[in-house]
Amino acid sequence: MTPSRRVAPPDFDRRTLLKAGLLSAVGLAMPLPAWARFAPAGASEKALSFYNTHTGEQVKKTVFWADGKFVPDALTNLNVLLRDHRTGQVEEIDPDLFLLVHRIRQRLDTKEPIHVISGYRSPASNRKLRQTSNGVAKHSLHMDGKAIDLRIPGRDLALLRKTALSMKTGGVGYYPDSDFVHVDTGRVRFW
């Protein structure tokens, strides 16, 4: 039998304990990461299916969130699908937007693919659209990858709007004549 070694306790002084307490308090007081506003509790995987109405491309059941974090390859594929179909320009889409759309889809209890009317929009495309339509914002969040215009087959457009509004997260625009709802991760507002 070997004699036991006595291990000295860590050398904590009053200053070290105060620093640790202060850092803990600051950590608790900090706002949640942005994605935490949108991330639903529960499921370890979150997936979406999209159909781009302009290109005919689709992404079937892409897991974009797994084990508490975003899946980079899936986000890359979704960024390509939501590219500016006029110019082909691909930009990063705000991952919070995917979480928001996922929550909307869950509330509507559907597995149907989300029909994308507009995802990312380049400044050049936005300018062109503004010349032909009065419903296009000069500083559209589409140009920041924070907005999507969508519809869901088999779900009433007014119900989609109502569901998006109930999230109280970002902007919601209702365009029944053009058959889509706009959702974004900007400030809460509706039109």
Count of discrete structural domains: 1
Helix content: 25-40%
Q: How many distinct helices?
A: 6
Per the CATH scheme, the topology name is Muramoyl-pentapeptide Carboxypeptidase, domain 2
Largest sheet: 8 strands, mixed
Strand order of the largest sheet: 3-2-1-4-5-7-6-8
The overall average pLDDT, rounded, is 84
Question: For this structure, what is the CATH class?
Answer: Alpha Beta
Given helix and strand content, the structural type is alpha+beta
> End-to-end distance, in Å?
79 Å
Q: Would you report the number of β strands?
A: 8
**What is the overall shape?**
globular
Runs in which pLDDT lies below 50 for 5 or more consecutive residues are: 1-41
Q: How much strand?
A: 15-25%
Named at the architecture level, the CATH assignment is: 2-Layer Sandwich
Evaluate the radius of gyration: 22 Å
- Which sequence of SSEs, written as H and E, runs from N to C? HHEEEHHEHEHEEE
Tell me what the structure shows.
Helix 4 packs across helix 6. Strand 1 (45-52) and strand 2 form a beta hairpin. The chain has an eight-stranded mixed beta sheet with strand order 3-2-1-4-5-7-6-8. The protein has six helices and eight strands. The chain is globular, with a radius of gyration of 22 Å. The protein is 34% helix and 21% strand. The longest helix is centred in the N-terminal third of the chain and has 16 residues, at 14-29. The model is unreliable at 1-41 (pLDDT under 50). The protein has 191 residues and is an alpha+beta fold. It has a single domain (40-190), classed as 2-Layer Sandwich (Muramoyl-pentapeptide Carboxypeptidase, domain 2). 31% of the residues are buried.
